[in-house]
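Annex B. Sample input.
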Amino acid sequence: MGTLQIRNLPDDLHVQLSERSAKLHMSMSEYVTKLLRDDMSRPLFDDWAATIRSEGPGRGIDVVGALDAVRGEYDAGDR
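Annex B, continued. Sample output.
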């Protein structure tokens, strides 16, 4: 397993991370790892946009389904 060191982390951000991880009953390392996993699970905008363009016109977007998924994540505490 790798190690990550963050240099020059602003004090206020360190305090916020510490407080948030404590509220979630997680170590700061666990919390930051979760944040990174969440971020890496989403494509970069340019990659996403290229995929959308490659699918051509007529691509249906399930807005209701997307909103339901976000609400479900919110209700489950995955904020």
